[in-house]
Amino acid sequence: MALWVIRILFLSMCTVGGYAVSQVRPEYVGLPHAGLFGMVVGFGFGWLMIAIDEMIKGFSLRAFSATTFGLVLGTVVALLIDRSGLFQYVEEPTTRWLIRLCLFLSFGYIGIILAMRSNKEDFSLIIPYVRFARQNKPDNLLLLDTSVIIDGRIADLIEGNFIEGLILVPRFILKELQQIADSTDPVKRARGRRGLEILNRIQRNPRNEVRIHEGDFPDEKEVDGKLVRLARNLGAKLFTNDYNLGKVAELQSVSYVNLHELARFMRAILLPGEMISLRVVREGKDKGQGIGYLPDGTMVVVNNGQSAIGRQVEAQVQSMIQTGAGIIIFADLKQSLPDAAQDNWSRGTTPSTA
């Protein structure tokens, strides 16, 4: 809204400026409808500038600086070739002018393209010991996507001071959360509202600053593509739960953290012979087996545990296997916990092991 206010003000100034020019230029003074003609010209010029503004909406300041640097570099190379005397035998002025025009246009274009395709590390090779970085740049920029916000564990990590830095939430991610929260599907609506609540919870944490980033890439239709480009341009670390997005970011040399993988790495490692306490919740695939789960969600197959379904038991770890879904633990039933321990477990108290 504020942008359109500025545009309307600029358009008005162009219109008034066109009228003012028509009143002072000798070739227009005295002509019928000179003022109207000047206002139309000024209004048209203003609309032309606004149209150009819309066309370069996705053109960032970094891209502009890279374009300028590439143009200057290409012009310098073209000037060196022009001054080298290579075309001194071309005597016709028109032909020489055309050659010089093509020379400067070609090397200017090539310089722009090379600069746009380069990264900041390439500039340090061209200008040694110069690093294009702000002195007040935050140590760590954290870019959050929709999945990690809805998941909610990122808020626990921030509150536990395990993650520090400037937290960035792009405007297009906030818009996507709002669209999910307004969905007619009750499941999606609940997920969207949870995401907005998690964002409010993160913003209330005084330890980390949260900013809504206005950067966008209109030429990118997919949100994942926008996230990867924004993370690359800002040098930010991308936090996500999307496996495919993480791999795309990795292919484009963007640093990322997948919270599902982090949780898998942080699971406790159990060795054969260790005792574990768990509740058997259902029967297993083979005869006599029971199935239980550890607090982190790891599935445990308890041999001879079918008779203990619905009870808290102690089991001894025998082996573990790694599957595509995670780790499965095989254990032997040792004993069921006494009634007092069952009561403590139902109230949320961890029973003591024998």
What would you say the CATH architecture of the largest domain is? 3-Layer(aba) Sandwich
What is the name of the CATH superfamily of the largest domain? 5'-nuclease
Rg from Cα: 33 Å
Low-confidence stretches: 124-138, 339-354
Order of helices and strands: HHHHHEHHEHHEHEHEHEEEEEH
Shape: elongated
The N- and C-terminal alpha carbons lie at a distance of 68 Å
Number of strands: 10
Structural domains: how many: 3
Beta fraction: 15-25%
| Class per helix and strand makeup | alpha/beta
Numbering strands along the chain, what is their spatial order in the largest sheet? 3-2-1-4-5
Helix content: 40-55%
Largest sheet: 5 strands, parallel
CATH-assigned fold name of the largest domain:
Rossmann fold
CATH class identity of the largest domain: Alpha Beta
**Helix tally?**
13
Strands, helices and their partners?
Layout: H1 2-24, H2 34-55, H3 61-82, H4 93-117, H5 120-126, E1 141-144, H6 146-151, H7 153-159, E2 166-170, H8 171-181, H9 186-203, E3 210-213, H10 223-234, E4 237-240, H11 243-251, E5 256-258, H12 259-265, E6 275-283, E7 290-293, E8 299-303, E9 312-323, E10 326-336, H13 339-346
Helix pairs in contact: 1-2, 3-4, 8-9
